[in-house]
Design goal:
Elements: E1 6-13, E2 23-28, H1 36-44, H2 48-54, E3 65-69, E4 78-83, H3 92-108, E5 113-116, H4 119-122, H5 128-143, E6 160-167, H6 170-198, H7 206-218, E7 223-228, H8 230-235, H9 239-244, E8 253-259, E9 272-276, E10 278-282, H10 302-317, E11 323-332, E12 344-346, E13 352-354, H11 362-375, E14 380-385, H12 389-395, E15 400-404, H13 407-420, E16 424-426, H14 431-436, E17 444-445, H15 453-462, E18 469-474, E19 480-481, E20 491-492, H16 497-510
Length: 511
Amino acid sequence: MRQIIDIDVKTRKAEFARCKTDMLVVGRFSDGGPGEIIQALDEKLDGAVARLARIRDFTGRPKTQAVVYGNGRIGAERVLLLGLGERKKATLDTLRKAAATAANRAVEMKAKQLSLALHGSFRGGLDANAMGRAIAEGIYLGAYRYDEYITEKGNGRSALLATEIVDPDSAQIRSLTPGVSAGAVIGRAQCYARTLANRPGNVIDPPALAKAAQDLARGLKAVRCTIFDGKKLRQNKMGGILAVGSGSRSEPRLIVLKYTPRKRPAKGLPTIALVGKGITFDSGGISIKPAQDMDQMKLDKSGAIAVLATVRAIAEMGLPIQVLGVVPAAENLPSGTSYRPGDIVTTYSGKTVEVLNTDAEGRMILCDAIAYAAGQKCGVIVDIATLTGACMVALGTYKAGLMSNDDALVSQMEKAAEDSGESVWHMPSGDEYAEEIKSKIADLKNIGSRWGGACSAAAFLRQFVGDAKWAHLDIAGMDICAKPTEHTALGSTGFGVRLLTTYLMNLVENG
């Protein structure tokens, strides 16, 4: 198979006008002058940038860009000008998306070396370490392409994009470098997640996902992987996972990744469980989905893969916190052995569930995994899942739903969302929603009424967390970029990797 594009990010001391590169990237705000960097370049370029501003071809408006050619007057072959919008509205995510746009454009133009001076526009307004991390994350986000099954060679993209963040000030480079290093780790993890999520159901089934987790753990000394196969699932009476996987020839799995840091964990921090929904393909089962867009259901494993990638990121960084990654994996298909509407399933916790719709399968596998994490005495449980279409109806493709039983945990997740650029919105999941999923013939039923489906689904999961602090991330709609944008390619977004990694990094920093 074709290799996914290799991305390398580093820092280098260099004068902007003398920087030899295929493409030099600078930014401009719309509510101010061109800035020192652009002015210095423009002097060498005989006023080419100023002419663009005069004819209103480039004034710094958001999502605008222009290319000016060096023509031997400066070190760069091209200068990519990016509009940053209003300075007062600028955030770290403005910088991250600008870097992603630059990397995306570089791949399109087949540039092999990309040099970024975007941080210069933000100097004095944002922390240098945070800027370095955001830029590095953005580079990986924008340069990524999923094309491993395209066999045509032709005039395609380069195999490598060598990227650097440049500045003439050595002190500034030293301030940026730690953030760039962390951002590169997170960016690589997100690319790993996107590749694994993009692979189709005939490539990634539950056993294949379990093998991917084992392969991941082999390369990480601080991570141990345990797999529950069908026999072990039956021995442990994990009825929810077994029911959902009963219609497929590929037996379900429970994947457990235990990260134990080499350094002593930060004092006072609990073990954190990350639980991810791993439906490798979701047809809906007997309650079958419509044919339109069913191909996208290979991405129903996105929550699971976000957990795997987060464990990879924190292990590579050596983060001093204990984390348990728990991934229930199943394929939801209709067959003569599928679980049915009307069935009553006994879950790992002992609670019974009346099945009213086999397409509400995510909660059926997650309830076993969450109960398992609670049994491992994890103080905090965070689950992440492409769980409900109802959440997408409520929030569109702009924010993930966040439900929780702890206000402090909500605040921590919201802060991580702000820092990572992966947005969430707090939604309810209290007792009124729990009433929706009470059954008359079992403890629970797996769907509530027509209304508030995302909230009642979260209320269902809440029944299995025990005494742990718990947060639920419904990432339906956030898992896929249905068409290319100016800063990312179509397919899996890897949503949740930056969010969860940032949450854990913040815990360590503030713990």
